[in-house]
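tool=predict chain=A
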Amino acid sequence: MNPNLFAMIAVVLAGGATALQAPTNAKLMGAVGSPVNAAFVSFAIGTAALGILAVILQAKPDVAAARGLPWYIWIGGLYGAIFVVAAAWGVPRLGVALTITLMVAGQLLVGLLLDHFGAFGAPQQPISWGRAAGVALVLAGVLMVRRF
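tool=predict ok
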């Protein structure tokens, strides 16, 4: 199988998992009392799963390389926590489709800027009319999901 095709399929499936995560955590929020508590449980389960997977795959970090990283590289989990709390909080108020559509719009807007500047070592891909139009279509999709 083409490696790029495999990567695209894997990312689409991960996106589907994200869509499942939002209503699951919203339901959990009702039981545990807050979106923060739901996110905490979600991250605890995720951390345990990643720990098991790391043991199975015998994944060993390069400690020397990790020590040389700048501070802002270590806060990726914070972004994930914000995402999970916002999704759990947003779904009961906005619905799954609008919550996810808004999150995708935010991801694309920031992603467009990160690509443009080649931030965090990403391949630099300048903003073009086509890329901007793609993001604009997603923003139009947000309006359609909201209104119809």
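Helices lie at 3-32, 35-57, 63-67, 76-94, 96-117, 129-147. The radius of gyration is 18 Å.
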